[in-house]
């Protein structure tokens, strides 16, 4: 009994020392802010790590079968095309983040660090995130289009595949074969999704982190970053799921397949209201890790390579 109590006391002492050490290190660490391009680099790294999950999410949303599962889809892909097929379209995914996420993070970070942003509060950050998401969504539309198409090639018969060599080849072929405007097919839904995604991820991440700091139990460390990013990922997934389904169907459509947005909505609604949330769980399984990795990478870039606040 005495040994058990001694072990419990030792465990409590160890935990107390660890928390004290974390607080001490956080207090001594110089406060830094992100550079404008850190968000794009962090998002690109996260996209590469989570690409197989994103590919399965796209295939699941465009599959018309009601009883297909994520596990079944992954088995079919590996059986027919091998394990490397899970990284089909990864160049487009990385290019998309380097255009879309670099733009939205840059606008948000620059706005947040401006005189207006420093005193704007939560709702001011929502406005900055909405502006960043609007511009970023439009800028990233061509790479997003190629990303969806390259991922969807996996489930098409060989004779119907587009077979883009990489993201740049895909963009050039769409421009040459379908016209420049086709590169921005689905730009409206992609931009709307980007607005809600940026608000859900960036604004709510900052708010969650601030709320955790205010409790007094959390410091500027990887554990806090992880918890705040999980919260942001859940909110962002819920806010953007219906828009993401519409965007995926729109971008994957053949020229002339749908006359307008109403035709796409009718096509999705054949599965009922749940059709607009098809793939919610696999999307969170993908977006959750992507959001966590993005902010962990971003925070590590900020802590190690950021700009000292005093030098701004």
Write a structural description.
By secondary structure, this protein is mainly α. Helices cover 73% and strands 1% of the residues. A two-stranded antiparallel sheet has the order 1-2. The longest helix is centred in the C-terminal third of the chain and has 31 residues, at 222-252. The model has no long low-confidence stretch (mean pLDDT 85).
What's this model, at a glance?
Helix content is 73%, strand content 1%. The chain is an all-alpha fold and 312 residues long. Strands 1-2 form a two-stranded antiparallel ribbon.
Task: Name the descriptors.
single chain; 312 residues; mainly alpha; Mitochondrial carrier fold; two-stranded antiparallel ribbon; 2 strands; 1% strand
CATH superfamily: Mitochondrial carrier domain
Number of domains: 1
**What is the third-level CATH name, the topology?**
Mitochondrial carrier fold
Strand count, sense and closure of the main sheet? Answer: 2 strands, antiparallel
The CATH level-2 architecture is identified as: Alpha/alpha barrel
Q: Tally the helices: what do you get?
A: 12
Helix content: over 70%
Gap between N and C termini, in Å?
58 Å
